[in-house]
Give the backbone structure.
Amino acid sequence: MHVLMYLVAVALQAPDSEAFVITLGKDTIGLERYTRTADRLVDDMVMRDRAPVIFRHLVATLGADGLISHLEVDSKPVVASDVSPIHAVGRFTNDEAFIDLTRNGQTTTAHVVMADGRGALPFINFCYALYDQTGQRARKLGGSPVKVPVLGFGATSAFDLTVTFPAPDSMGVAFERDAPTLFKVDAAGRIQGVDGRLTTQQVVVTRVPTLDLEAFARAFGNRPLGQLSPPDSVRATIAGAAIAVDYSRPAIRGRTVFGGIVPWNRVWRTGANLATRFTTSADLVIGGTTIPKGSYSVWTLPAPTGWKLIFNKQTKAPCEGEACTVPTRAPLWGTDYAADSDFARVDAMTEPLPRPVEQFTIAVLPQGKGGVIRMDWEKTRISIPFRPK
């Protein structure tokens, strides 16, 4: 019995090593390798979802309660760049967190109070070592679903991830108002694979036996993907109306778009990231419906039998009480669609394109005595005519 207890104790202290390849469609956007013991986590990542390509090194002190008490992160470009390295230090208790960020010799400190005393884990997007720790914390808290508070670097407050355990070998982690990322885990809760294709991030993460991260850093150092769905805008004056469209531009990346990553018969944000915004300085008749001058969020309802374009009155983030009067309220995120704020739904025409369009593109063009809103992606063109009121 004493020998068994000794072997278990040794196993708990033995380092766990994991390595992952993070893909979005056909593109590799990141690579990660981490080692964990009972009280320490060391993680290294190469991330291409920005420019320049970034190498990130993270060291965390782990507690028996699944929380992290101390964290240090170094982030720097893989190749020579004008982007400065960042050194971050986080100190966490159940009641508060202090985050020091140092760049160009200047340090700023953020102090975040945890109102409910639950503590919070640090959060870095696409860092699966921290997702693994989120699962460990959820198991300590118990239950399914269970809310796990996390705190992003630069954030002024924590937010909850909802963790579920639908089966012994499965875990789900969801942001508010988004579908869960699905994790395959082993008996110890270690991540074996990740499928985020139900979510807005769409990534797939594959576990590999080992990873020469330094070799990949050299290979990818001069090959950044840049922002995955960059923002863009359209400005046009047609039929006396100044029209503005602000949207983000996702790419195909080898995937099936309509009926795939954009499901049929489900409202789509008409782009990526923030909700697409449409502004007109004059009343317009769009698809036979009068749209008064002003700003709207624009959504799309794709279906094999016909498409709808939705003009929605909500353009700012959801709020309650006095927060709704703050002029600097954040813009609406693309997962925050609220059907009860719809102003109008209009029919859209579709036609096939002769060649695939890799990146989602919106145009506003003159047509006859008015104009047309045109959206191209994959092998589909969506068109909605308009005219002055």
About this structure: The chain is about 10% helix and 50% strand.
